[in-house]
Structure formats: C-alpha cells, structure tokens
Design brief:
147 residues, mainly beta, 11 strands, elongated
C-alpha cells in the first residue's frame, strides 16, 4: 500500500516530508518495480537515492548541503530584431538550457522553448526580445565546489 502526502500546500515554517532512511540492505526489491517516484535516504552512503528505471537500480543524488557555488549574472539589453546575445561570461552546450535562469523584462523564460544555447558564449531567443528590455541570465547555481 502506498503512502500519499495529504497536505499538498507547503507553508513556511517547520514542515518537511519524511523519507525512508535505511541502509542499502533494506532497499525495496527492484525486480518488476514500476514506481516512477521512488526516493529514499541511504544511511549507508549518507545520500539521497532515486530508482533509475533505465538502469533498473538505485542511483545516488549529489550530497545535499555541501560545497559552494559561484553564482554569476550576465545582463544584456534587448534590441528590436536581434535574437542572439553574447558574449556571456560562460560557455554552455546545447541541451543544457535548464542550467541557466533567464528572464526578459522580469519574466521567466522557458528553457528550450524561449531560448537555446549553441555550445558557445551566446544565447539565442526564438523570438527577439522587445526593444530596451533587460535580459538577465543567472548561472552557476547548479554546480558546487567541495567545501
């Protein structure tokens, strides 16, 4: 029998979701396992784990709360008819759009839908941002350096 979160609204304060926390010897049997959202805390590796269906095994998530990140912001100004901007202070490959937060005139842009990267230091918008709109890129939050 599954367990469900009954309170779907999380408010600020002392709220959390309890995850199963056991050693690896108590992992659920993965043979024929179909749950797409299996998440647990391994007391063996002291890390979050999820069930990886493509490998039919558990995979460890990065350790939470360790290291530091150098978050950087690049800013450009929109110009009518121009859809490519750069040079950014970093280079990012195509397919990694979700690793950068992009806002145009304060509105969040959807990765891969509103913009793409071509593996260099430029960002290409699928529709040119409006004239004089502020384009803000925030990056570096998704990587850590060991403390």
């Amino acid at each position: 029998m599954g367990r469900f979160v009954k309170n779907t609204m999380f408010r600020s304060g002392s709220y959390s979701i309890d995850l199963p926390a056991t050693s690896n010897s108590f992992r659920p049997n993965v043979t024929g396992y179909t749950a797409a959202t299996a998440l647990r805390y391994s007391t063996t590796s002291n890390a979050l784990e999820f069930f990886n269906h493509s490998a039919n095994t558990y995979s460890t998530l990065s350790t939470v709360g360790t290291g530091s990140a150098l978050v950087t912001k690049d800013t450009f100004t929109g110009s009518t008819g121009i859809s490519q901007f750069g040079a950014m202070s970093f280079s990012i490959g195509a397919g990694h759009e979700a690793n950068v937060l992009v806002h145009v005139a304060g509105v969040y842009q959807i990765p891969g839908t509103n913009y793409v990267f071509g593996g260099n230091t430029t960002i290409s918008f699928l529709s040119a941002p409006s004239d004089s709109s502020t384009i803000t890129l925030i990056h570096g939050y998704n990587s850590t350096t060991p403390a």
